Amino acid sequence: MQEAKLKERKKAREGKAEGRGEKEETVEVEKTEVVAEGRGEEAEKEAESLKLPQIPSLKVEEFKGIRAKSLIFLIEKPKVERIERKISKVSIRTKEFNGVRANVSFNFTLPEIRAKITEIKVPVLVPKQFHELKAREVAFKRELPEISVSRRQIFVPNVRVKKFLEIKRKSISLKSEEREEVREKAERRAVTEEIAEASAEAEAVEEHEIADFFEFLLGEGASKISAGKPICVIVERTKEKIEEVVAVLCREIYRERRGGKPTPIYKRTVEELRREWDALVERKLIIVEEVSGKNEEIEMLREMLKGFFSQEMGFLILVSENPAELEDEIRKIEPSANIITVGLPPEIEHRRDEILRCIRGKESGIEVGSFGEEFKRSVEMFDEELRKYLNYGRAPLELKRDWDRLMACSPESEKEASEEHSAMKAFVWLYEWKKHGKREIPELETEDRGTDVRIGDKNYEVETLFGVGDVISKLTSKIKKYSKGEKVYFVFRNLDILRNLKSLSSFKRDWRKAGYDVKCFGFDFAAGELVPLEAFVRLKVGANIKDKDKREE
Q: Cβ(2)–Cβ(46) under 8 Å?
């Protein structure tokens, strides 16, 4: 009975909890639940009668979740200052978009087109050469519209047309070999244009305007050096070493007049010279580097100069601090002595690079120092460039087949020509062979006239001038092998052209008047081409004109 009461109380308590919407926890006992409602004796008796163990009362509280350990975070709140600004209202006015208007307006009505058949002639272009277009008339029928235009003003925009300059080529990437070939062709073209300009200018130059090379280079009176007689040349001691220039020119004169080369003798003083050598100057090129002008030296020099009248060509070059005083002292004791004093004119300083390049036939990035040393080196460089054309291994097969004729003096002679002569022929042969696209092979030492190089109607006569004596006499004998109207081209070394420029210009002018197509050429190794005589004339005439202008000022 007691058990039934407990069950009823339990149900009533659960129903109450559900009605209130609260959640409670109860403790279930498998068989009994003792609830102590009071603390009287009756409850204790009942418990003892039931013999149940005493269960402590449990106080149940509402489950409020699991609380974590309290963590305190201190965060400083930023101070925010309130900024108050007054914003004035902006009124924006808008206009209705009416589209984009053009600057130029056209106001006209379309014409009424009426077609009718008529006959017109339209030219047909027939190209012939690149620079010339000729028209040919062709007639055909077509409908030509007849246009009637209403008389209204039409506004036409002003169109500006720029001057046509050129057609630009697209950039093309080339290989290094191709770029080098293009560059060389451009350089040759520039040289050719410059030469053509020089030729036009030089043709108008009178013979009297062409100065003697020795006077042009070494001043007035220097032309006596080329007279072919024993001579004493006095030069001033300077950093330009003029004695080297004089020595080279004297050697070339000797080779031309006598053939071979004079014996070079360099001595420091006149006393050293007399101890080791006799008083003869012929066939020698003597350079005394220090001449003071003392009485003992003047007496030694007098003995040498007295024998000049009965000697062959020779040169005595004296270097002195006071060349004018030295010449005066010598003339006091030997008035008839063949003596000249030379020096570089001030104008040469502005043209020295041009002169040196003309002599060597190419540019040079190496500067030796003094003008005398550079002059001497330029002549040597010319000979070195010539010798490259005698390299059998690098010669084309067509030239190798005529190598015997290249090295011979003439077709009927077994004697070999000088190295310079053969190299000059090789240059001319290669120049013309390349110029004709390697399709025509020039002839060497022709059988009929012994022409050095011939191709087509061009006859090349190569001249070194070694041992010829009189230059014009030699050239005259050569040109007489040909007839009027034939092309006869003479080729010389560059220094030989400069030394004989005046006489060569006169020779060319005279024979052209006689009906011969005569030309004279030098060498341009940089471009691989022959340079006409007129380019050398312009070099010297330009200097003369400049000097004349200075004198007039």
A: yes
| DSSP reduced 3-state for 398 | helix
Cα separation values, 330 from 269, 325, 485, Å: 16, 9, 55
CA dist., res. 520 & res. 423, Å (int): 17
Measured CA to CA, the distance from residue 7 to residue 26 in angstroms comes to 13
Dump the DSSP string for 263-294. EEEEESSHHHHHHHS-S--TTEEEEEEEE---
Q: How far is CA 507 from the centre of its chain?
A: 38
Number of neighbouring beta carbons within 10 Å of residue 421 = 20
Report residue 517 as tokens. Answer: 């197509």
pTM, two decimals, is 0.63
Residue 316 in contact with residue 281, Cβ under 8 Å? yes
CA atoms within 13 A on the CB side of 492: 24
What is the rounded distance in angstroms from the CA atom of residue 461 to the CA atom of residue 487?
A: 11
Residue 18 host element (H or E) = helix 2-20
What is the Cα Rg of the chain in Å? 57
- Identify the CA nearest to 205 among candidates 507, 532, 531, 542: 542
- Helix ranges (H only) for 260-370 are 270-276, 295-306, 323-333, 352-360
HSE value, Cβ hemisphere, 13 Å, CA-based, for 319: 20
> Is 345 within 8 Å of 219 (Cβ atoms)?
yes
Task: Identify which of 506, 471, 490 has the alpha carbon closest to the alpha carbon of residue 253.
Answer: 471
| pLDDT tens over the chain, length 553 residues | 566 766 777 777 766 555 554 444 444 434 444 444 444 555 556 555 555 455 556 565 666 665 655 555 455 555 545 555 554 555 656 566 565 555 545 454 555 655 455 555 656 655 555 554 454 544 444 454 554 444 555 454 565 545 545 545 444 455 555 566 666 666 656 555 554 554 444 454 555 567 778 888 888 778 888 888 899 999 999 999 999 999 999 999 999 999 999 999 999 999 999 887 777 899 999 999 999 889 989 999 988 898 888 899 999 999 999 999 999 999 998 888 899 999 988 878 888 888 999 999 988 766 668 999 999 999 999 999 999 999 999 999 999 999 999 998 765 455 678 999 999 999 999 999 999 999 999 999 998 899 999 999 999 999 999 999 999 999 999 999 999 999 999 999 999 999 999 999 999 999 999 999 999 999 999 999 999 999 998 876 544 433 433 433 3
Tokens of 297: 């030296």
